[in-house]
UniProtKB/TrEMBL annotation:
<dbReference type="Pfam" id="PF07859">
    <property type="entry name" value="Abhydrolase_3"/>
</dbReference>
<protein>
    <submittedName>
        <fullName>Putative neutral cholesterol ester hydrolase 1</fullName>
    </submittedName>
</protein>
<feature type="domain" description="Alpha/beta hydrolase fold-3">
    <location>
        <begin position="67"/>
        <end position="191"/>
    </location>
</feature>
<keyword id="KW-0378">Hydrolase</keyword>
<dbReference type="InterPro" id="IPR050300">
    <property type="entry name" value="GDXG_lipolytic_enzyme"/>
</dbReference>
<dbReference type="GO" id="GO:0016787">
    <property type="term" value="F:hydrolase activity"/>
</dbReference>
<dbReference type="InterPro" id="IPR029058">
    <property type="entry name" value="AB_hydrolase_fold"/>
</dbReference>
<dbReference type="InterPro" id="IPR013094">
    <property type="entry name" value="AB_hydrolase_3"/>
</dbReference>
Amino acid sequence: MHSSGGDDPSVRTIEGVKAAFRWTLEDAVMDHLGPGVTRLEGTFNGTKVYIYQPPAMSTERLVPGFIYFHGGGLALGSAKIFDGLARKISSRLNAVVINVDYDTTPKNKFPGPINQCYAATKWLLLNARDYGVDFRRVAVGGDSAGGYLSAAVSQLIYDDEMVPNLKLQVLVYPWTQCFDFHFPSYQEYTKTFEIGKGLVCREAMVLFCTMHAWGTARPDLVQMLMENRHIGPSFKKSTLYQETLGHDLLPDAYRSAALTKVRLHLIREMKNFGKR
């Protein structure tokens, strides 16, 4: 069950997509998005990072720190691809940004990415002054899978009595659950974009999840998650499940008719994007 996935076609597919990402975006340094921002390279507890210093950086005044974990399903992309965003954050916030280049699947399966990001975050908190950062004003954030990593790291830091607490976490459309792949949002997405299509369809999310958990996407594992057989019926009825994943947790503000119209408009825009 815990094979390396070396002969798995789905793993080769992931590697092919990674190569395409590197070929098209890896070397796209977008310094125009953060004029005056300086980028350095470093290593925090064994993990490669890119350090962005704002134009107004001073040796006499400490600035906030922002640690960014990139998205990509824990399988695609790299910190370099988010160079432009990191520069813009540093410039806009006048903050030192740490863009963490954690290893992805299948090389680095669970809990590898979490441990790397946790170790890098801990390093900055304990050595903040060396980078001109105020340890009392350090935040973590990320998009998609990076949001998942941010939430996990925030909990680990909170439980670690040896390091200062984080100021806040910024979760951008975070990937926060792999318990139920039949939530209404998944069903609506499949109905709207058809099976296997769209940016983040159920099939893609299941692939990323199995790659993260096992380092492989064998058909039996993929099918198990697609059918929600990885979660037993007794757990689905438990208080813990209902309190953390129940459908009633959605705030009223996100159930309004006005927001529904906005969502439908965005869906139409996404469906028409490729036709322009």
